[in-house]
User: Which sequence fits this backbone?
């Protein structure tokens, strides 16, 4: 009898295994080739994007240059000379100058200027400060390249090269402190270019992962197919074992798809991640420079919560209060040009032994709180310069006096042991004058011993052309839309976007000239090296918001050609002032009982010298011994705060010493 045995036929096993082995080899080969093609394609796309971007940037520079040629011919000529020197070297004698500066005619304010400022042949403050080091560098450059020397008409002269080197690389040493600058901003176009490059990498990596999974499928199929044939041949009576292999294969497919789905939300999140921007607060700036910092919340009579910052010197009797201007905040006194933190006025005053206080007016960055959490935006932003002068400044002075009486152990009934000096800029100086006059009219103690007013607003004999053009339009707009209450960026995203677009313009030489030209036409300043383009985080830190009442107050003073309190109408004036017309402060300068220094910039086109001189003359007529005037030939409007140079800082420190003798 023949015994029944299972039919174990191994004949198809070897050819099937060979077939699966060949399929795996082909899959590995194709996987490597496709991966290389995808990587090469990605790099080619990135190179293409870079070249298109460079072409777009050159076209943009071309149109900006043409615009400069129509608007400002000297800037256009400098741009042409700049690029001509880049393309074709100029061979001249290194010991000779191809052009010399023409001496300027002495200004009408020469008697108010320093001796070196009034001289037409004098250089800028930065040039004078670094003249010796520039000569050393010039000798080094000439030694390396004896036949090439840049012309003085080019913006890339050796003097400017050294100035940039000092600005971006030098550490400034003051009183054992070392200051260094940190640039955190990137431009919007730079972010957009980087976004395109990252998206290319993301798409290429996605395709690579997809093809890897596709070929992994075939590899898995060959593996499980061969395993299935072996199990089928060996375990023909137990096909359920093969089912385990099929389940394992399906598990790998499902887990791979799940991993792809998990990575997709992460990619979307990276897409919407905010672009980096320098959001450092004044507290961050102060602490990063190694100074002590304190912050107080000050509540006004009408419920506004204001920010008062301090660089404390508790035992000092010399107290200094800084007040910023319109669409500004405390950053004005802590911000500094790149690489020159020691130029910040608040830091320098602290180094001189002053107890420094910096106030932020209502509605500006850091002072946006209110005791009534349910207050409406229309009610919150319903204020003018009156509220800054009659409510904000008294609250700040009261808080400072309270702190100094505690620090110096002074009883409330005793006279104060400290002297408080105001340094105020623009609208802050306007509010200071209003506060001093109004306090004396109400027979109140203002608590101020002296004041230095930098480019003070209030009286405006002239105005920039842009203000004359936009003023009537804004006034008409406010009449049509009376519920509109505040001028500010509509959102944080828009604010960041504007900051980055300005950064893009500042990243190119042509863009810097264009921005400098536009800003200098509005607020003045040095066109070649404007403070606005040298402060990489200035755009983000200014224009934090101002009410429509502030605009109306300025527009009223400009139309009436007087320095007045806000005009509420006949009934409103009777209620607020007790008279049918608003207070004319210049007619009441006889109430001022402290010395005041008026400081003006001859390059300031926002508040021109004639306006400052008119206020100075009004006080001089009433108190000849309390009115002082100082002029700086090269300073624009914001050069008194974030753009303060060494001459201005030295003058302020010397004046403070005289006040605090």
Assistant:
């Amino acid at each position: 009898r023949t015994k029944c045995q299972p039919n174990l036929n191994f004949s198809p096993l070897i050819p099937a295994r060979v077939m699966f082995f060949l399929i795996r080899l082909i899959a590995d080969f194709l996987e490597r080739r496709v991966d290389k093609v995808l990587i090469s394609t990605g790099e080619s796309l990135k190179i293409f994007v870079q070249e298109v971007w460079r072409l777009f940037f050159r076209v943009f520079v071309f149109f900006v240059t043409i615009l400069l040629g129509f608007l400002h011919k000297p800037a256009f000529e400098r741009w042409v000379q700049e690029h001509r020197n880049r393309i074709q070297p100029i061979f001249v004698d290194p010991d000779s100058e191809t052009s010399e500066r023409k001496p300027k005619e002495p200004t009408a304010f020469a008697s108010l200027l320093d001796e070196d400022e009034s001289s037409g042949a004098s250089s800028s403050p930065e040039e004078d400060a670094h003249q010796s080091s520039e000569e050393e560098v010039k000798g080094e450059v000439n030694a390396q390249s004896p036949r090439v020397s840049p012309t003085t008409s080019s913006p890339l002269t050796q003097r400017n090269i050294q100035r940039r080197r000092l600005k971006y690389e030098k550490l400034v040493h003051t009183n054992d402190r070392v200051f260094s600058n940190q640039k955190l901003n990137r431009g919007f176009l730079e972010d957009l270019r980087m976004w395109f490059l990252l998206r290319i990498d993301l798409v290429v990596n996605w395709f690579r992962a997809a093809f890897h999974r596709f070929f992994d499928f075939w590899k898995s199929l060959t593996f499980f197919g061969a395993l299935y044939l072996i199990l089928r041949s060996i375990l023909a009576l137990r096909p359920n074992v093969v089912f385990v292999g099929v389940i394992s294969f399906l598990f790998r497919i499902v887990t791979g798809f799940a991993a792809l789905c998990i990575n997709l939300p992460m990619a979307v999140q990276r897409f919407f991640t905010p672009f980096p921007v320098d959001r450092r607060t004044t507290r961050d700036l102060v602490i990063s420079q190694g100074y002590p910092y304190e912050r107080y919340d000050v509540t006004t009579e009408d419920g506004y919560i204001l920010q008062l910052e301090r660089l404390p010197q508790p035992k000092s009797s010399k107290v200094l209060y800084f007040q910023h201007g319109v669409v500004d905040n405390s950053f004005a006194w802590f911000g500094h040009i790149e690489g020159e933190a020691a130029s910040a006025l608040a830091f320098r005053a602290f180094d001189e032994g002053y107890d420094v206080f910096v106030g932020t007016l209502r509605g500006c960055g850091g002072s946006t709180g209110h005791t009534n959490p349910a207050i409406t935006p229309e009610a919150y932003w319903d204020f003018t310069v009156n509220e800054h002068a009659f409510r904000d400044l008294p609250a700040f002075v009261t808080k400072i006096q309270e702190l100094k009486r505690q620090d110096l152990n002074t009883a409330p009934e005793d006279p104060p042991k400290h002297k408080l000096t105001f340094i105020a800029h623009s609208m802050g100086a306007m509010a200071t004058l209003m506060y001093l006059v109004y306090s004396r009219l109400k027979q109140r103690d203002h608590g101020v011993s002296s004041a230095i007013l930098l480019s003070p607003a209030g009286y405006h004999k002239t105005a920039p052309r842009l203000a004359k053009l936009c003023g009537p339009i804004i006034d008409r707009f406010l009449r049509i839309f009376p519920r509109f209450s505040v001028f500010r960026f509509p959102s944080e995203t828009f604010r960041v976007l504007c900051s980055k677009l300005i950064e893009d313009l500042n990243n190119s030489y042509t863009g810097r000239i264009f921005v400098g030209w536009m800003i200098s036409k509005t607020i003045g300043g040095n066109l070649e090296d404007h403070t606005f383009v040298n402060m990489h985080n200035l755009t983000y830190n200014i224009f934090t918001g101002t009410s429509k009442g502030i605009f109306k107050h300025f527009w009223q003073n400009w139309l009436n050609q007087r320095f007045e309190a806000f005009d509420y109408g006949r009934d409103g004036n009777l209620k607020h002032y007790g008279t049918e017309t608003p207070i004319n402060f210049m007619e009441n300068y006889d109430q001022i009982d402290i010395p005041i220094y008026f400081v003006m910039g001859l390059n300031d086109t926002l508040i021109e010298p004639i306006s400052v001189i008119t206020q100075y003359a009004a006080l001089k007529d009433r108190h000849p011994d309390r009115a002082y005037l100082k002029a700086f030939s090269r300073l624009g409007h914001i050069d008194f705060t974030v753009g303060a140079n060494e001459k201005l800082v030295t003058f302020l420190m010397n004046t403070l010493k005289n006040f605090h003798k």
In short: The chain is about 55% helix and 10% strand. Residues 245 and 251 are 10 Å apart (CA to CA). The chain has a mean pLDDT of 74.
